[in-house]
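seq:
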Amino acid sequence: MTNSANQTQIDGYLDSLRTQRKLSPHTLANYGRDLAELARLTDAVRADLPLASVSHFQLRKFAAQLHARGLSGASIARKLSAWRGFYDWLAGQVPLAANPADGVKAPKRAKSLPKALSADDAVQLVSHAHPHKDAESPTELCNRAMFELLYSSGLRISELVQLDVRYAEEGKYVSSGWIDFDAAEVTVTGKGGKRRSVPVGQPAVLAITSWLAVRGALAKADPHPLFLTERGTRMSPRVVQMRIKEHARALGIPADVHPHMLRHSFATHVLQSSGDLRAVQEMLGHASIAATQIYTALDFQRLASVYDAAHPRAKKK
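struct:
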């Protein structure tokens, strides 16, 4: 049980959050749980230890204990934030030499690796028609062209939907992306306004050519966009997301597929085949090589799984 003096201080702080900062009941409940955790950890050190006497070293130890119990870095960071706010308030109530939570950091969050499709699944996704739809309909031809281009050139979805049929500069309108069939490359404007050109594979070129043969029937007010919705407007990222997810589900691909997964797949498969990290960096439009190096971890995972499956001394008994 939390000692009464500590509980009184916690209640006082929560009341100030309620009356002065007008926090919602849900947020207040979260603060209450985090401060109750602090009180329990303090009581475990010594039942009569005042919260005002907890040291910086002890709070670091509390954070380590939470980590050892399996709490995520994000959860520990949230608790530390609540504790820091409490001690800021407490300093106005009782003498404190310093806020003991200042400088206490949560364990670094494990950086999740990007999810990429296997080469077989990626090829199946972009090359196979939807099993329950007319493969020659304008919508399906548009989908095929978009999916092929995403995987062929590793574009961001924002770059894909901003593509024009050709470069245009009319009044205030200037194309931010376009396709050059003669050079078999696509030019896009990425993050930070950085422009780059990326090769386009022959299957993607053919898919886009097939789409352009029917695109004219949909193009209405705006002649520029390469990819159009059924209403003749520029394609939106949300529509691409929904279409690719539904297409993957119809093909039975066992993954929660989204457009960026094809960008990850492009980078992973090119790196696996070429080993040229700098070339992948340039094609992805990464400002720093560090952003591209995460794909080497994916490649290592693949190699490790092959090793575990094939090496006699790696097999589990």
